[in-house]
Amino acid sequence: MNPTSRRALPSVDRLAAALASSPLPRPFVVHHIRQLLADYRDHPDTPIPTFDRLVEQLRTQLATVARSRLQPVINATGVLAHTNLGRAPLAPDAVTQLHAIAQGYSNLELDLDSGQRGSRGVYLESALALLCQSQAATLVNNCAAALVLALRHFTRGTRREVIISRGELVQIGGGFRIPEILEASGARLREVGTTNRTSISDYARALGPDSALVLKVHRSNFYMEGFVESPSTRELASLAQSRAVPLLEDLGSGALVDLRATANLEPEPQPHQILDAGADLVCFSGDKLLGGPQCGILAGQRDAIESLKSDPFFRALRCDKLVHAALQATVEVYLGAHGVSRSDLPAIPMLRLLVTPPAELRRRAETLTQSLADLPLEAHIIEAEARIGGGVCPRSTLPSIALRLRPHQLAPDTFASRLRAGSPPVIPVVADHAVLLHLRTVLPDQDSLLAPAIRTALTTADPT
Ligand SMILES: *Cc1c(COP(=O)(O)O)cnc(C)c1O
Predict the structure, then answer these.
(1) Which of 144, 232, 321, 376 has the most Cβ atoms closer than 10 angstroms to its Cβ?
(2) Per-residue pLDDT tens over the stretch 69-84
(3) How far is the CA of 253 from the centre of ligand 1 (A)?
(4) Ligand 1: residue whose CA is nearest its atom 13
(5) Distance 445 CA to ligand 1 centre (A)
(6) Which residue, 268, 274, 273, is CA-closest to 290?
């Protein structure tokens, strides 16, 4: 038959039968087959390949789709709260609670004493308040949502202005820009000071009858040095209070432990310190340093929290039972940890990754390199730097240990893409003509998966 004749195309059923081993649901397989066949019909001059070639083409496409399904990966990037990799791994207690709540019914909004409707998360909110040493606390979908809620809420009346330093109009991660969030919330932005210097008198001059809120944003992912100035939370709080305008501080990550004492890092502001200094409210992420599920925590004055919770918009931002389950268990780990001493830290994976001594990472790296001895690659153990990520401690790096791998026959980029195509995928860093695997972010029980993953990546064909 003429190879460009469309009648040479096989049937959908025949192709689907040949692809029956694909892990994807059949409608996905059929959809891709139909698309490919339609492509050939739309391009009548393209010769039609053999049946086997068509199957091969589809297999490759479907493998790419299958890889894109949400699945566990090994984080060897050295970035602890990696947003692309789902940020914090949960504590075992959180996973257990998640499982228990997920598989059945729960008292999410039922008061078990009265048998009547109760309010969601009363216990969790009081636990969060204890943790933050605040009058009250609540949670929404993420820190961005907490910010939008607060901005909308406080600017809904006649006062519309939010006062913020020009040095804090920052972009955090992909597409999260403070000025845009402000605009989207319907708030009017009142910028004060300059990029590098904002004084308390700049705020004092800007505060007026239109002022609805003073917003202080933790700069997170960058720092300024040199001719810089910004008032402390205490100074700002006292000014805001004297003008009867609330002060909200967006802490971004919100460290619940003293990072200097636990990991010798630059100090991140702790929620209780900021509230103690006089801020009315703080907000921070649940899945950065806290090490819990994605959510945004708001803590502070009871009136302010109650008022935010009564905003109709709050309903659109509330968290589901799975987040409640995981966060409740995570917060209980902190509350049970008596001041969170070093020995209690390991219960929160995020903190355990943070405090693992480099010597321990080196021992793991040595074991690993031994199992690679027979492979066609150069493997060295090097000192490297890990980062917290998620905008935490931009100045600090954590001493880390990495495996530096250089395959004899493969370009580093190819090797890296094969590692990502593995099962489980390993996410490395390509630098200096080599592939680096940072052990600080590899969970210890994943070590045994690394050597086979490296072996497979060296010996299998390219993921296409
Ligand atoms: C990370 C960050 C946010 C966004 O937090 P999400 O929980 O991802 O919405 C907001 N503000 C600051 C200062 C941050 O560092």
Answers:
(1) 144
(2) 999 999 999 999 999 9
(3) 7
(4) 252
(5) 29
(6) 268
